[in-house]
Amino acid sequence: AGSQLREIFDKINNLLSGKSVVSGGRTVSVTQHPQGLDFVYYKLAEKFVNQGEEEVASHHDAAFPIAVVASGIWEIHPRVGDLFLAHLHKKCPYSVPFYPALKEGTSMEEYQRMLGYQVKDSKVEEQDHFLKRMSGLIRLYAAIIQLRWPYGNKQGPHPHGLNYGWRWLAQMLNMEPLADVTATLLLDFLEVCGNALMKQYQVQFWKMMFLIREDYIPRIEAITSSGQMGSLMRFKQFLEKCLQQKEVPLPKGALQSSFWRS
């Protein structure tokens, strides 16, 4: 509910502002230790990113309440935003976007980690689990860039707004696609913030969508084996529907104004 989200936001904001906050039955304050604030900034940013790969990966709608709190905190405490991006880019290089290359002397295990895979006891996680986590992270990022905390004073621009989303999309399309990964993440990204990008960039946005269909989809098809077609087919269907209807639907789970009265 909106009221619960406000409580969570206020508690985090109070903690970062140096006020005393009750947590787990104890009263804590960042002033209790010289590095207290730095530590909390770091751990909070890490927690936001973890919510992307855990909560949002399992429940896509969760991206919006988490993102609106993260965006509001970022606006008041820019350091959290910097650290959020650092944690996000480390967990999901595709959010840069960046595809790490295998360098000489790098072990396969280390390389898998660089690509964002979880490696435990030399066992690499399953591809579908990996894609699910990456989807959660990209969805959280796509929600943050379009949302602002509704109770802020909103003096300046969004600290990391839709222009970053536009840049991400353009950079993705300038890179050679990866089987499975590229189609999955483009679909996640456009499902979450395609509607907002459409409203902001209008004609330019539709040119980009047309370019994806005519030029980029064939490039993805060329490197996709028959067993990896699922994500590509879903992306193609989404794109066709948007181009036919000249509309990107509002994302499922987007916060309506009625939410804040709950």
TrEMBL record:
<dbReference type="InterPro" id="IPR012476">
    <property type="entry name" value="GLE1"/>
</dbReference>
<dbReference type="GO" id="GO:0000822">
    <property type="term" value="F:inositol hexakisphosphate binding"/>
</dbReference>
<dbReference type="InterPro" id="IPR038506">
    <property type="entry name" value="GLE1-like_sf"/>
</dbReference>
<protein>
    <recommendedName>
        <fullName>mRNA export factor GLE1</fullName>
    </recommendedName>
</protein>
<dbReference type="GO" id="GO:0005543">
    <property type="term" value="F:phospholipid binding"/>
</dbReference>
<keyword id="KW-0653">Protein transport</keyword>
<keyword id="KW-0811">Translocation</keyword>
<comment type="similarity">
    <text>Belongs to the GLE1 family.</text>
</comment>
<dbReference type="GO" id="GO:0016973">
    <property type="term" value="P:poly(A)+ mRNA export from nucleus"/>
</dbReference>
<dbReference type="GO" id="GO:0031369">
    <property type="term" value="F:translation initiation factor binding"/>
</dbReference>
<dbReference type="GO" id="GO:0015031">
    <property type="term" value="P:protein transport"/>
</dbReference>
<dbReference type="GO" id="GO:0044614">
    <property type="term" value="C:nuclear pore cytoplasmic filaments"/>
</dbReference>
<keyword id="KW-0175">Coiled coil</keyword>
<comment type="function">
    <text>Required for the export of mRNAs containing poly(A) tails from the nucleus into the cytoplasm. May be involved in the terminal step of the mRNA transport through the nuclear pore complex (NPC).</text>
</comment>
<keyword id="KW-0539">Nucleus</keyword>
<dbReference type="GO" id="GO:0005737">
    <property type="term" value="C:cytoplasm"/>
</dbReference>
<keyword id="KW-0813">Transport</keyword>
<keyword id="KW-0906">Nuclear pore complex</keyword>
<keyword id="KW-0963">Cytoplasm</keyword>
<keyword id="KW-0509">mRNA transport</keyword>
<dbReference type="Pfam" id="PF07817">
    <property type="entry name" value="GLE1"/>
</dbReference>
